[in-house]
Structure formats: structure tokens, C-alpha cells
Specification:
Blueprint (H helix, E strand, L loop, with lengths): L3 E11 L12 E12 L2 E7 H7 L4 E12 L1 E7 L13 H14 L4 H17 L2 E7 L4 H13 L4 E4 L1 E2 L12 H15 L5 E3 L2 E2 L7 H13 L5 E5 L3 H10 L6 H7 L7 E5 L5 H10 L2 E4 L1 H6 L7 H6 L3 E4 L11 H14 L6 H16 L16 E4 L5 H7 L5 H11 L5 E6 L2 E2 L4
Parallel strand pairs: 1-4, 5-6, 6-7, 7-9, 8-10, 11-12, 12-13, 13-14
Antiparallel strand pairs: 1-2, 2-3, 4-15, 15-16, 16-17
Helix pairs in contact: 3-4, 4-5, 5-6, 12-15, 13-15, 14-15
Amino acid sequence: MAAETLLRGRVLRFVSEPKAPDDHGSYLFDEDGGVLIKDGKVKACGAFASLRVTAPDATLIDHRPHLILPGFIDTHLHFVQMQVIASWGAQLLDWLNNYTFPAETEFSDPAHGARIADAFFDEMLRHGTTTPVAYCSSHPQSAEAYFTAAAARNMRVIGGKVMMDRNAPPALCDTAQRGHDETEALVARWHGKGRAEVAITPRFAITSTPEQLEAAGALARAHPTCPVQTHLSENHDEISSTLGLYPKAKDYLDIYHSYGLLGPRSLMGHSIHLSPREMGVMAETGAVAVFCPTSNLFLGSGLYNEAGLAEAGVRRAIATDIGGGTNYSMLRTLDEGYKVLALRGQKLTALKAFYWITLGNARALGLEDKIGTLAPGSEADITVLNPAATPAMALRHARVETLAEELFLLQVLGDDRAVVETYAAGVARKPG
């Protein structure tokens, strides 16, 4: 009989999207709770005393007084951009040409890809992220490195080889046919194997010809369980350049729609400058708008309209967007997201924030049956947080009176130092 592990602590998990700062019905919280783990999955979750009675021989790991939550989920980032994070002074298109594309050419070397992939997953786990959704480079070997490193840590991941056949250095360009074939080979090798999913990944319309977007649409039709990820309406110059390349399109989103790339598992990175028509189409197709606050601020791209998208019925997610994003931490991302929305006259409550990076992002990915919940039968991806991890946090924590205040403290002051442990499929994985 396989051994069981029982984590003890203050256990929080969400059941619905919070609609108010004090929406107590949106979550379950056990002040003295437990998570019982067996074979990499959650066997039970609830009051510690009850779980201990049912599993007296389980190995006990006592995390009190820390918070135990589902592992964080990051829905948009570029693992191949680790070495361009914190590159100074450019907006989107210049930043890509000056920093990103030169760095990505190095991923033709499998050894380089393997080294960066190992560093990437160490950072994910150090910051409490158990599921990243990543863009690799246009080289299929970069995706091999990504999925191999994830499998070694038994992490649930989504990733894809970038498809791009124009407006980039020749060393980064594939062709419509090669991009299709290399993606299809990755699907055959990795999709649904272990805890991996392959995303169909045309970088964005500027770097794909109509023929390549047609090939991406063919992949989406042939492999309907594969997510689709791309970029949409991040920057005004980007939008103008895109429409110049596709003059018959009604708007930016219409390009992707016309090639069959919109659906419930389509992740549209940024989605800042959307027209009412575009919001309506996203709501109709179920496509997801992915909020990337630190990169939007860093590159001066614009302010995401969470309330407007919600009112239009658009599904939403949140992400770091490394390396245009400036921090690997979902906690730091929530802090900057709060500020972006405040500039919009909107507020990100603490409950909504932690829902977003757990169950909310799981729902955006269509994976809420597997991650983001701590429900029995779900995968035991877990993050343990200490809201008094630093002297400044401890000083503030002494005045905390409610769970929402504690979460907001973590949201504003937390980072990787607040992450006590990260479990992937029930195994402690945070690097030392």
C-alpha cells in the first residue's frame, strides 16, 4: 500500500470567483486544516483532526501557522527570455528586436536550452508556481528542453514551439510547413504524456504569414485538445503594424478568428486595447484575455480593463509574462495588477487575487478538474505561504485581523521569501 502524507496548516481553497471583498461563500478555509496526499493526488482535504483519524499512519508535515493553498498557475510567459528580463528602455517592438530575438537565437543549441529550462523551473518552484504556460523559441529543441525539465520535476505544464515565418531574424524563422510539422511532432511526443500539454503557438500576427496562420488553424482543428496561445493588442504600434499586414481584417482579433484560432482554450496574451466588437467575439468564442501587469507597465503598453472585460463576459487570466514581465512571482504580479486596475478606477480584492492565481487560472486553462482546487482526486500541487516571512511583513502581520487582510499583505509585500514550500504532485520541490 502506497504511503500517505498529511500536510497540516491553515488551508485555503476557492470554490467560486469572489464577488465582493468579504465574499465568504467563495472559499473554504480551515484554521487547523489538512491535505491528505496519496500517489501524487489529493485524497482528502478539510479539518486536520478528522483527517488524522482516517489516516493515523500518514507521514505528518506540520506547516502551522502557515497558509496552505493550491499551487500558483502562470498562464503566459516566455521561458526563453530569462536572460533578457530587466533589459532597459524600449517599447514592445523595439524590445523584441533589440533584446528578445537575439537571445532566442541561442536556443538552437540544445545544451543552452537544457540549462535555461532547469533554471526556469527552479525559479517557478522557488516562487510557488506549479503550472506555467510558456512560449519556447522557434526551435523545437527548446520545447524538448522545456518538457524534459518539467517531466523531471513531475510538474503540470503547457508549452509550445513558437511559429514565426517573417519579420524576425532568419535564424529564428521557420516556414508555414515547418512550423506546422515541428509542432505536430511535439504534439505526438509530449501532448497528454505525463503532465504535459502542447500549445499551438503562433507568436503573433506580425511574425506569421497568412499561410502560417492557416497552418496553425489546421493544427487547432486536428488537435482540438491542444490549447492555442498568442499575443493580442498589447501596444498601439503593434496593432497598427498588424493591420497593415492584414488590411482586410475588421480588427486585430478578426485575424485570429478568421483562421480558426479562437476557442475556450485560446489564451490571448495582453488583450489591452480591445474594441467592443472584439470583446464580444472573445465572449462568444470563450477565448481568454490574459492580464500581464508587470510587462504592460514595464513596456508602457497600456492599462488592462478587467471590469470592462468582465462586463462583456470575457474569460480572464493573469500572468507574469517573463521576460517583458519583471518578476517571476505571482504575488508580485498581483501587487502590480492591483495598481494597474487602480489607475483604471477598479479594485482587485485580496480574495479575487488569490482566486485568480489558483482556481481562476485553472478554469481559464480548462484544468480545474486537475489543479487549482485541492479537491479530492485533484493533483497535489500545493504552495505554502508565510505571511510574516520578512521583518516588514511580520510587523504588518501583527495588526492583521482577517483572512482578507492577511492575503492582501501577501499580495502587496510577498515574494519568493514568503514561499515556505512548493509541492508538485505531492513532492516537496522548492529549491534550497
